[in-house]
Amino acid sequence: MWKLPFRFLVVLSMILAAAASFSQSEPKFGTPSDALAYVQQAIDQAHGGSFRTQKAMNAAYVEQSRRAKEQCSAFDIGQQHGDQLYALAKICRSAADRDRDREALQRYLSEPPPSSGYNPDARAILAIHMYRVDLDSAWKLIQTAFRADPIAGQPFYSSQEVIDYVGERDDAKARAMSRERWLLLRERLTGSGEQAWWVGRAAADLIHRDHLASRSNEAAKDLQEVKAALASFPEAAGSLHWAEMEMEPAPVVPALKLIGRDSHEIIKPGRVELLDFFFTGCAPCISSMPQLDEIQKRYPREKFQVIAVTTYKLSAQPDAPDPHSVDTALIKLRTQNARHISFAITSDEALERYRSSYGFPFSALIDKKGRLRLLDLMVDYDEGDPIDLLIKRLIAE
Q1: Cα Rg for the chain, rounded, in angstroms?
Q2: Is 199 helix (H, G, I), strand (E, B) or coil?
């Protein structure tokens, strides 16, 4: 009779015991809203520790995903209603279960709204699930969101993803959608603050789409229109500043120090340049460095170069304010995170020519003629993302 080795049996029994312990320890909840609180607790607890390390942050998101996957499948969508449906959709979104997220959202929006109204993000998120298979229906959801929901981040980002998707195929149609978004938001803009910030970003995208569609006359007219409409909203000033700079000669960026590059000429005619403005104490800036490194590796350096730009004042640390310490920190940063890109230290005056009222990191994309073609905040650089497609386009010009 064939027998399993004793050591294998011991290991197998340990695995089964651990699995049984896990299934027993995973809590069960009566409602999706209680389950959602449990799922979100993984991140809340990590925030309590201030995400002291990247490793701790990653572990928190892994734990959140694990909890979400268990809880997403624990509830019957057909038995949920109102806010419980939206809570279940959020759980499944954290679990990256697009099908159940979409199903829960569709059911949620098909029912009469809860007493507090629909969640303001629901339509915009459902549009993201739909636009690749039913663009018209997805855009109608976004139109409804802009008419009925608060002017906020999720509707803007959802609409931007859809417009970018259309722009990959049809510049004119993407421009028309961007203009429609601007008109819808302008009509609803009644106060300053966050509302004006998002409307300003929509206005800047419209000018950008004008240029992409080679409609310089419309760009000039639209720029005057948005400046007049947003003149009394200081929160939109940063977007308008960047919109005015597009297609203009890029301001000079003198290099006080260069790391990883022989030439001291940062903006060189005949080459596409991506300037990423950052500082060493900025966590989002540092986390984007590997992406910048990857995008540099995709293109020959003679055609395209990435330069991470900072100043001594920005990157000086309280315990090490001298320039030599900043130089050392940048060399270490490049060695550990971005070996293929260059780092430059420029003057505070040069930084201010590019900087808006937004934060960091922000990026400036410059074409072969030395013109600014894009200024944006916290850009994604993955292959196939909008800025990657624009880089390909500028290299081919």
Answers
A1: 25
A2: helix
